[in-house]
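Tokenised fold entry reproduced for everyone:
>
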Amino acid sequence: MRDHTVVIGFGTKGRSAIRTVCATGLKKEQVVVVDPSAKAVDAATAEGYAGVMGDATRSDVLKRAELHKARQIIVAPQRDDTAVLVTLTARQLNRGAKIVAAVREEENAPLLKQSGADAVITSASAAGRLLGLSVLSPAAGTVMEDLIQQGSGLDLVERTVVRGEVGKRPRETDDLVVNVVRGHRVLGYDDPAVGTLQLTDRLITIVRASPGNQVTPDIRPLPRA
């Protein structure tokens, strides 16, 4: 395999993450699941993914999943300390892949960043914030729940700026732009630093979900918690 997706951990988080990505066009045969549980690996292969059973903190196990050739890596084991070790090992094996990791406790998120994760999702805090929002505003909670259900209702997507949008302000485009990605910075649509759109910018937008949405180099879903 090459340019595939490796998922470490096929529990609730890992399963939901990869189903979200596959819902937007990633082929199941381009996914390799690594899990120490034979039952989890059997479940993954039953869904059409490739499976590797073993301890993902070991480089030889990750090499069996050809992680060194992967394009993106999802780290979602049960324990935070395992997530740190897996991320560190994965980054040593693959310097160019995008690594997204999940942790239970927010205090462990900096360790994941230091270990090489590009993005870290704190599952307990994310769930807590959604609960709090739903208490304050059930309608707002419903909208947020919709946004994290890829492929139904409203979706968050990231796309390139097209030539016809160059020189315009974010809210002058046809899509509902919420952020502009410029270089390594993620700017709010109303941030004075944005000014007008540049051809090298990327836009984070809210769009109506379509069953036919596909992941392309120009349009891709945002990682979900």
User: Anything to note?
Assistant: Residues 32 and 50 are 5 Å apart (CA to CA). The chain has a mean pLDDT of 86.
